[in-house]
Write a structure and sequence with these properties.
heterodimer; A: Cytochrome C Oxidase, Chain A; 22 helices; about 65% helix; B: about 240 residues; mainly alpha; 3-stranded mixed β-sheet; two-stranded antiparallel ribbon
């Protein structure tokens, strides 16, 4: 299947003026200029004696930033041309798809789903890197009690921004790169359903990340990533940046979710029935649907926080008739489904990897889909378990404890499917498989400790302690991050044409795997002893556990740096992989590497499911 | 996965980056219709959350502040420690927002939706793009008028100046806050409709939307009707459920 598209050899489209000179640099310039304009207008026209003056000026600045960023990158070109009835020509569309633009297209508002996928890989690395540096600073502060590596106010800000950066990073860690790069090809489509919206979701995320990182520069925040009232009302202007970044981020996720679902439901090639979809496509679609449900709450709760701060409304301010419980409810209505928006794509990628690497079909394909769907459905009914100790609706504690414990059923199906797939398989022990086994080990610990915390009596004892922190880090680091790295190692050859360096990858795996155990098992111990979360200092009785936790965190960081080195080095010097290094059957492996613009010369017609491994492939 | 690589007419469309130019309208229509329904679905979640906010704050009535100072008539200074540098006080009446203005905004939104829907029906029946352009222009004009009345609604939310040591701000009760976010989200919808209406008008006038290529008219109509429905629901809830008994 070696194909060359006819239009790929055409001369690049000419004309277009300024629109064709837009890139990341013009976006930054646009963002800064309009941010300054927003500040200037607010500064000169608003009453400076108002209590909300600094918040209003800040909010105006952030709105200016995102508008200018969109304008500078070219996100508003399409709507503008639609408005005046001058739609893009095919030459325009191919230009925006990056045709004949080489590496420059990676810095542009490029609509090619594969370019967007690579941009997401870089974006994820940036977010994880920034969040990781903050994690190291936090752990360095906590290595001994009474340490003064950073002052307490800065420490609080580090905790808040670390949390939110990592949440954003993990939301996009699998769904961003791979739902973009491989899902359209897996479906037999030439691109996502809405290529311009695809680019919009990516660049909106970049704009939101800029706002979030700015929090550190403007005085930071005073608590963890949930930032509930009254602190959300009392915090400095960093809170305005923080809340606006979330509002903008939800635009990105909504657009991306709609695009993913429409791509899968309307752009499958002939013969690609729902029952023949690769399991990763199912996972991406279910997570996208769950995100569409969850993220409007996130947007609203942060918008209301901004209104409380900017306009003195009283949503969450008890003195004016509001209540923090409203904020907590809205936040956790998003907060728990969001865990599965993050988890499901990673698990689905691991299903895919387990099948390919064991040369067996996904065990009980329909059970896997039922597990992911069931998890998504149940996840919207468990939010109040985050509020067991707040005193909100105690009579609902029992039902929420039940729904939370029921989550273990679809989660158990995940283990059943992965182990059933690997069972008696001809397992190929390469990097993706290593990370898969690491996931299985860590996810068992994450799941079992989650069951403890779902029980109200135990939660009453452990809520707000390091035990909870350790639990959700086993979910996010031990499970999701392992799934994301497995997916990276698995699909890396399709992106670059080269294998991810095996030796460096294995070193990275063992450092991160052992680091996770040292870090978070010792964190369970400090939590069981009663050490509270988010404190910058602690009693001497927690010292040994904290030393271990910090050393383990350094191991994780070292492992991630080795992984980064492997990714960078292998991109140009890795072992050539060819178009189908894993001898897999799904469509992304049947197109050339790297896949050409629009993926297929002629669209394939599917006649079998993707997991029908034949004897000759097994032997290969 | 076994595949047959064969070129099929109508199947090998360049669906990737052509923005719909080179695909059959029914293909583009189906894809975009699913997208618009998904966006509406997300919007329904957001709108429901706003109504939840309204009903929750009314239900809990924290500290009796759902509509505190209800019935107060007088200057907009509720209390202050130092009134220096305050703007001139205005006379306000603290209470429910006028239901009439609320329903006027809702009625105008429904009217604009009716224009869009009628225009689309005419376009599909008579293939008359000019008539459609007129109808969407009317809908856009009505929407702009609606935005004006929405701004008036915002201005009518009774605010109370709170002054503390020369720094003052306006404070809103829970009712006012809930109304503000409801009206604000309605205003965002209206600005979006004005943009879409203007676009449809220009596109129909330029012949981009015509008697055979009308799927965008239907897509916008779906969203427009949802906005009208949400306005009716919002008005009905805030008119019938507001005071604490």
């Amino acid at each position: 299947m070696t194909t060359t598209l006819e239009h790929a050899t055409q001369a690049p489209a000419k004309g277009g003026g300024l629109a064709r000179r837009q890139n990341f640099i013009t976006a930054m310039i646009g963002g800064v200029v309009f941010a300054w304009l927003g500040w200037f207008l607010a500064h000169h026209f608003l009453d400076s004696s108002s209590r909300s003056y600094s918040d209003l000026v800040t909010t105006s600045l952030t709105i200016g930033w995102i508008f200018g960023f969109w304008l500078g990158i070219g996100a508003l070109n399409g709507p503008g041309r639609w408005l005046i009835g001058a739609d893009h020509t095919r030459a325009d569309d191919l230009y925006y798809a990056g045709e004949n633009q080489g590496r420059a297209r990676y810095w542009k508002y490029c609509t090619d789903h594969k370019v967007v996928g690579v941009q997401y890989i870089v974006m994820t690395a940036v977010l994880l890197g920034a969040g990781g540096i903050l994690a190291m600073a936090i752990r360095t502060e906590l290595i001994v009690p009474g340490n003064h590596f950073v002052n307490q106010q800065i420490y609080n800000g580090f905790v808040a921004v670390h949390g939110m950066l990592m949440i954003l990073a993990l939301i996009v860690a699998v769904a961003g790169p791979w739902a973009n790069f491989v899902v359209p090809i897996m479906c037999g489509a030439r691109d996502m359903a809405f290529p311009r919206l695809n680019a919009l979701s990516l660049w909106t995320l970049v704009g939101a990340a800029g706002l979030l990182l700015s929090v550190l520069a403007v005085g930071s925040l005073t608590m963890g990533w949930v930032v509930l009232a009254p602190i959300s009302d009392q915090a400095g202007i960093g809170m305005d940046f923080f809340a606006m970044s979330i509002v903008v981020f939800t635009v990105s996720t909504t657009v991306a979710g709609v695009n993913t679902i429409c791509t899968v439901m309307t752009m499958r090639t002939k013969g690609m029935t729902l029952a023949r979809l690769p399991i990763f496509v199912w996972g991406s679609m279910i997570a996208a649907a769950l995100g569409l449900y969850a993220f409007p709450y996130f947007s609203l709760v942060e918008a209301q926080t901004l209104m409380d701060r900017n306009f003195s409304t009283s949503f969450f301010v008890a003195g004016g008739g509001g209540t923090g419980w409203l904020q907590a409810n809205l936040f956790w209505l998003m907060g728990h489904p969001e865990v599965y928006v993050i988890l499901i794509p990673a698990v689905a990628a691991l299903f895919e990897i387990a099948s390919v690497m064991s040369r067996k079909p996904v065990f009980s394909y329909r059970t896997a889909i039922a597990g992911m769907t069931g998890l998504a459905a149940l996840s919207i009914l468990v939010w109040a378990h985050h509020m067991f100790t707040t005193g909100w609706a105690p009579t609902l504690g029992g039902p929420f404890m039940l729904t939370t414990e029921l989550i273990s059923i679809p989660t158990g199906l995940f283990f059943l499917v992965i182990i059933g797939t690997l069972w008696r398989g001809n397992i190929w022990m390469k990097q993706p498989t290593l990370w898969l086994f690491g996931f299985i080990f860590n996810f068992i610990i994450a799941g079992i400790t989650g069951i403890y915390l779902s029980d109200i009596p135990i939660d009453n004892q452990l809520h707000g302690t390091m035990f909870v922190t350790a639990h959700f880090h086993y979910v996010f680091v031990g499970s999701v991050l392992f799934g994301a790295i497995a997916a990276l190692a698995f699909w890396y050859p399709k992106v670059t044409g080269r294998f991810l360096d095996e030796t460096m990858g294995r070193i990275s795996f063992w450092l991160v795997f052992l680091g996770v155990q040292v870090t978070f098992l010792s964190m369970f111990i400090s939590g069981l002893k009663g050490m509270p979360r988010r404190y910058s200092s602690y009693s001497l009785i927690f010292e040994h556990a904290n030393v271990l936790t910090t050393l383990g965190a350094y191991m994780i960081m070292a492992g991630m740096l080795v992984l980064l080195g492997a990714v960078v080095r292998s991109w140009s010097h890795g072992e050539p992989a060819g178009p189908n290094p894993w001898h897999a059957n799904s469509l992304e492996w049947l197109v050339p590497t790297p896949p050409p613009l629009e993926n297929f010369d002629v669209l394939p017609v599917i006649t079998e499911d993707p997991y029908n491994y034949r004897e000759e492939l097994v032997q290969a | 996965m076994s595949t047959d690589l064969e070129l099929e007419h109508g199947h090998d469309s360049h669906g990737g980056h052509d923005g719909g130019h080179h695909e059959p309208p029914e293909v583009v229509d189906g894809r975009q219709r699913m997208a618009i329904w998904l966006f509406i679905g997300g919007d329904i979640i957001g709108f429901s959350a706003i109504l939840f906010t309204y009903l929750y704050l009314r239900g809990v009535n924290t500290g009796g502040h759902w509509m505190s100072m209800m019935g107060y008539q007088g200057h907009s200074y509720a209390y202050y420690e130092n009134a220096a540098n305050l703007p001139a006080p205005t006379l306000i009446t603290v209470g429910k927002l006028a239901a009439g203005l609320n329903w006027l905004v809702t009625g105008l939104t429904v009217l604009s939706a009716a224009f869009v829907w009628a225009g689309e029906k005419g376009l599909r029946a008579s293939k008359n793009a000019k008539n459609y352009s007129v109808m969407t222009a009317l809908a856009t004009a009505v929407t702009i008028v609606t935005i004006y009345f929405t701004i008036k609604q915002m201005q009518n939310i009774p605010s109370i100046y709170v002054a503390v040591n020369d720094s003052h701000t306006m404070a809103y009760t829970a009712y006012d806050s809930s109304m503000m976010v409801l009206i604000g989200s309605g205003m965002v919808h209206l600005f979006l409709l004005a943009f879409l209406g203007l676009g449809l008008t220009i596109r129909a006038a330029r012949g981009v939307i015509n008697g055979t290529k009308w799927y965008q008219a239907r897509l916008v109509r779906l969203f427009w009707v949802w906005v009208a429905i949400s306005a009716v629901i919002g008005s009905a809830v805030t008119t019938t459920i507001n005071t604490i008994h």
